[in-house]
Amino acid sequence: MHDRIPRRGWLGGAAAAVAAAAARGGRPAAGGKPDLLTADFPPEPDPPPLPITDTHVHFWDLAKFRLPWLAGEPLLNRDYLWEDYLRATEGLNVVRAIYMEVDVDPSQQEEEAAEVVARCRRGDSILQAAVISGRPGSERFAQTMRRFAAMPEVKGVRQVLHGAATPRGYCLQAEFVRDVALLGELGLSFDLCLRPGELGDGARLARECPGTTFILDHCGNPEVFASDLELWKAGLGAIARHPHVYCKVSGIVASTRGRRWMPQDLAPIVDRVFAEFGPDRVIFGGDWPVCTLGAPLGAWVGALREVVRNRPLPDQRKLFHENAAVAYRLR
User: Fold this and answer.
1) How many angstroms separate the CA atoms of 155 and 186, rounded?
2) 225 and 112 share a domain?
3) How confident is the model at residue 40 (pLDDT cuts 50, 70, 90)?
4) Same domain for 145 and 203?
5) Segments forming the whole domain that contains residue 211
6) pLDDT tens digit sequence for 62-82
7) 8 A C-beta contact, residue 318 and residue 89
8) How many CB atoms within 10 Å of residue 297?
9) Which pLDDT belongs to residue 331?
C-alpha cells in the first residue's frame, strides 16, 4: 500500500517548489528535469464582479413622451434610450434591471406603463420588471392599478414627492393613504421619493399602511456635501424602524453635480443606511441617466463597491443583487 502524504505536507512541498522555481526564474532544476510547479504559470484571473440587479433604470424617448421636469435639467434634456443604458452597463455584470417611471406628463402615465410592460415581455434582455407612475388619491387610481396589478411585470408604483410643487404632508392625505394601502392589497409596492426633511412623513405613511412594502429611493435624498445631515439622519432612523421599508442605495452621486468626489465622500451616507436598515433591507439602484449629473454609471458602481468592500461578501451580494428579488418579488 502506498504511503499517504499528509495534506499539510503536500501544500508545504508545493509551496517550496514554487519558491524554488521562482528563485530560478522558472528555469528547470539542475540535471535538466523541469519542476512540477514553475513560476511561469499565468496569474489567476480576478474573480468576476458580483452580479447586479439594477432596481432603478430610467430611459426615455422625447419623441414619444413629455417629461416637464427636464426643462430644468438641460444636461438630461435629450433622448436616453434602452440601448444607451446597455452600453453604459458594459462590464458591470448587470444581470437584471427594473424600469423606474420617469415622471412623464400625467396624461401619458398609462401609455408609459403599457410600453415598458411590452418591452419586458419581449424576453430578449435583462429588463424584467417595472415600477410605474401613479397618483394615489386621484379619481381613477384604484381602477388603473387593479388593471396593471394583473400584469406580472408590474411590481410597484411611484409618485415623485420631492418636487417644489408638492407640499409637506402631501402623502398623509386620507385619500393618498387609502390608495397606498390598496397597493399592498394588490401585491404592489410603493417607492418613496421624499425630501430629507420629510422622511418623518414617510414613516407615518408606512405606519398607516403596514401591508404595503415601501422602498425609500436615493437613501432619502441627502446631499453628499451637505454641511449638516442631522435632519436626514433623524428621519432615516424614523422610517427604518418599520420593517416593511427597504432603502435603495441610489441617487446620491447626482447630488455632487460636477464637484470632484471620492468614494470616501459617499461612505458616511452608505454606512448610515446600513446602520439603520441592516444588510437585509438595502438594495442597489443605478439611477441612470440621472446619476450622470455626478458620474458615469460605471464610476458610481465602482465607488459603491469600494465603499462596501470590507463588508462580508454575503452582505455585498444582498445589496447588489439578492435583496432586490425580495423587495420587488422578482422570479
Assistant:
1) 10
2) yes
3) low
4) yes
5) 52-327
6) 999 999 999 999 999 999 999
7) no
8) 23
9) 82
